[in-house]
Design a protein that fits this description.
The protein is an alpha/beta fold and 243 residues long. It has a six-stranded mixed β-sheet, sandwiched between helices. Helix 6 links the parallel strand 7 and strand 8. Helix 3 crosses helix 4, helix 3 runs parallel beside helix 5 and helix 8 crosses helix 9. The radius of gyration is 18 Å and the shape is globular.
Length: 243
């Protein structure tokens, strides 16, 4: 489980995140939805310990991401938006290198790498250098890196950005499989249709604050709308920019 409690993060005069709270439970896909610049990526960077909040707290399976960041990292697999690969390494080498960084015992690395290569259907290009890969191939390898240490919690920041229809459908199937395996999946996007198709619970952020959260049905009910796009517009209008 991922829990966020009243986190705030400023970058100088820019109030990126303002008192954000939500939970992402195990065995569900929780969507983090909002317009560009709403604070989604900043919130996720706090969770995978790249930055520290100015106030508030966040935890992964009860492990505080600030006071015990190393243990929190072991419990989460993160796919940041625009995650790069080492271009002169093969897909297999990229995944194995990350397994080493994540603390996977040396004797287990080859087996773990083969497992994610098989699960994500990477075998066709596993031994090619990643330079020149398509966006879909790069995303699959980056996702494999984030899963090779078998984390229970998975954070995906706009993972379908730049993917074609086939690659998007394939990635959605992978995300649903993670859910069916009981993992906690936190999925960020600004595409309403995608969130509606995948997510059990939705948190809509606007101007760095939570505008509304709940199931799709609950959000539609609370906003008095018939589809998620209209609900999204209604919700973000309630939250003004930071003073």
């Amino acid at each position: 489980m991922i829990r966020v409690q009243n986190i705030t993060k400023n970058f100088g005069a820019v109030k990126a995140v303002r008192d954000v709270s939500f939970e992402a439970p195990d065995g569900k896909i929780t969507g983090l939805l909002g317009p560009n610049g709403a604070g989604k990526s900043t919130t996720l960077r706090v969770l995978y310990t790249v930055i520290k909040p100015d106030s508030g707290s966040a935890s992964i399976d009860g492990v505080d991401v600030v006071t015990d960041s190393l243990e929190a990292r072991r419990r989460v697999g993160a796919l940041p938006h625009g995650a790069g690969l080492y271009q002169h390494l093969t897909a297999r080498e990229n995944i194995a290198y990350y397994a080493t960084l994540a603390g996977v015992p040396k004797a287990e690395i080859d087996g773990r790498v083969e497992k994610v290569i098989d699960e994500l259907e990477i075998i066709e290009f596993a031994d090619r250098q990643t330079k020149g890969f398509s966006q879909g191939q790069r995303t699959k390898v980056a996702l494999a890196r984030s899963l090779v240490h078998d984390p229970h919690n998975v954070i995906l920041d706009e993972p379908t950005s730049g993917l074609d229809v086939t690659a998007t459908r394939s990635l959605r199937d992978i995300i649903r499989k993670l859910k069916s395996n009981g993992r906690c999946v936190l999925f960020s996007s600004h595409i309403m249709q995608e969130v509606a198709a995948l997510c059990d619970d939705i948190v809509i952020i606007s101007h760095g604050k939570v505008a509304i959260q709940g199931t799709t049905e609950r959000i539609l009910e609370r906003t008095g709308t018939d589809d998620l796009e209209d609900a999204f517009v209604a919700a973000i209008r309630r939250v003004g920019p930071a003073a």
